[in-house]
Amino acid sequence: MANAKHLTLLKQNIDLWNRWRKSHREIQVDLTSANLTGAILRGADLLGVDLAGANLREADLGGASLIGADLTGAYLRGTKLKDADLGGAYLKDAKFIAADLSGAELSGTYMVGAYLIGSNLKEAYLTGTDLRGANLGQVNLVGAHLKGVDLEGANLRDANLMGVDLSDANLVRSHAIGTNFIQATLTGACIEGWEINETTKFDRVLCDYVYLHKDRKGRFPPSGFFKNGDFPKILVRSSS
Question: How confident is the model at residue 146 (pLDDT cuts 50, 70, 90)?
């Protein structure tokens, strides 16, 4: 359970909270399972805070610093995280439902099994993020930074990845039915066993080569780059 003193101070005044945090970095803040529904926490210093299992439904965390925070299993339905910094945060099994993560810094975060249905990650930074098994159905990722992201087994059904840089991404066994990859960059992506069909959009995709097997094996083409019209042919093969 959350430390009552920490929770009261946080809810009382953000400026006061931030000053206290600055002068008490040695204290490990405990906000586990805290009820912060609808809380106004804009710009809050939550660096390294333990928010595992916290209820942050409809909370406003815009511009907050959550670097290294533990949000394992946290509930974030409708939560506002616009421009928040979650770099290196631990978000395993966190539930983001229709949350606003536009412009958020999520590079290097651990989001295995995270639930992001209907959330807005437009222009978010997800470079090197571990999203294995995450559910990103209907998520808006336009302008997001996803180079080298790990999406193995992730649900990308109906997600909008238009124009997104997915170079060197791990898309092994990802589910991409209805996904919009129009003008996306897929050079160097690993696409073994991904699930696609005629509703998956690949118009004007930028792709020089892909890997057909996990761990960057089975480069195709074996050398050089795709010739015009070759990329669509490999799609059926990679999903079989």
Answer: very high
